[in-house]
Amino acid sequence: MFETKLSSVAFIDLRKMTGQSTPRVHSHRQGHSVCSWTNLRWILLLIFVTIIMIQFMTNFTVYHTKIWKDITNNIFISNNGDSMKSDLAGGKFRNNIGNLSSMLNKTKEVGSLTQLTTAKTLAKTHQTLSGSSVVTVTTKPTVPVPVMKATPSSPGNEKGFGMKLCPPIPPGLQGPIKVDLNDQISWDELHKKYSELEAGGRWWPKTCKARSRVAIIIPYRNREQHLKVLLNNLHAMLQKQQLDYGFIVVEQNQPLKFNRAMLFNVGYAEALKKYPYQCFMFHDVDLIPENDKNIYSCPDQPRHMSVAIDKFGYNLPYFSIFGGVGALTKEQMLKTNGFSNKFWGWGGEDDDMSDRVRSNGYHISRYPKEISRYKMIKHGGDKGNQANPDRFRLLQQAHRRFKTDGINHLEGTYKVIKLDDRKMYTIIKVDLSEQAVART
């Protein structure tokens, strides 16, 4: 203490001797202390902000990792944005989805980027659980069973009314199945094999209420052997899927060129006169499914069923295709106005329907190709079904005709000349009027 005072006095005396002003030593030290304290506060604030940011990023990373881990474990997302369920055994999928939804809700507090990811993921998750959109996805060694949602129905003559719903995942599905291509089997043999069928090829589960009422509509002419093969395979598969279903075979009378799309429309209209169907499978007679997990039900989006056909190396020929086998609800048929009636001969009608689907705000959904595999029965060219030379012109003008060319202008364009509820299917033979169609 004494040394410090002495040094200060000596310093002041020296300044006086040289004529310099005496500095305010105490004021200088006071300013230095204030400055040091200010810097310290900024340093502490910076450390605090850094700690908060580290904690924020850590939480973000943890939540983000958990989210996508569960997503990739349960849902495989394809390039076109559609989804497919997995890990369903023993209800594990639904439990995981519940946990996933809980975690996604928590992440809303993390930041706007996470909220955006959460919203999109929840939308796809809800779409998946409702059975609405299931499409081509990343290949996995084990392909899960799609969940089938219950389609709302009104009391009436639908089968199973008042009973509990069948399980969302039908029991007993095995995945890949052996396709029986024996076309020499007789109708009598088929009748004995499927003796439990009701007239018109109708069947429904007897222990629960089916989740969907499905009409399989088949355009037909001169393909009896193919029809037997298809019915022999499909009846067995659809019963395992616990569907309330029936077969409507629409046969076009000679001699006009074959009009596949218009026969689909006629089959749809006539099927609704027989039973309150909700879902319609528009099915070529020569395509046989190879996987019983390819459930014949209708989601919230029109579904292209025949994704992978052996003729095309089990690959999708092009993304917008809607040919072979397609599924639409009654509401979707009404909104799209069904198929065009103007395609006489081969080609173009599928692409026209694809345009109708997409133009009305829908997208084409698909099962993964491991599930939606089909064999095509080999056959030669069909007489009366030559390539349609007007198909390209019709496709160019398609958007002009959507509202006037379809199921809303069927009246007066066809005549039912035969209707027979046979053991394996209902046959509806019709005359089509090209002149009446041209006037629509």
Describe the structure.
It is a single chain. The radius of gyration is 35 Å and the shape is globular. The protein contains 12 helices and 12 strands. The strands form 3 sheets. The protein has a 7-stranded mixed β-sheet, with helices on both faces. The protein has a 3-stranded mixed β-sheet with strand order 6-10-8. Helices cover 39% and strands 13% of the residues. It starts with a helix and ends with a helix.
In short:
With 440 residues, the protein is α/β, with parallel strands linked by helices.
Major sheet attributes: 7 strands, mixed
Poorly predicted segments: 1-30, 62-142, 150-157
Which structural class best describes the helix and strand composition? alpha/beta
Strand content: 5-15%
Oligomeric state of shown chains = single chain
- What is the rounded distance between the termini? 114 Å
Count of separate DSSP helical elements: 12
Question: What is the number of strand segments?
Answer: 12
Overall 3D form:
globular
Secondary structure: helix percent: 25-40%
Radius of gyration: 35 Å
| N-to-C series of helices and strands | HHEEHHHEHEHEEEEEHHEHHEEH
Mean pLDDT: 77
Which strands sit side by side, in order, in the main sheet? 7-9-5-3-4-12-11
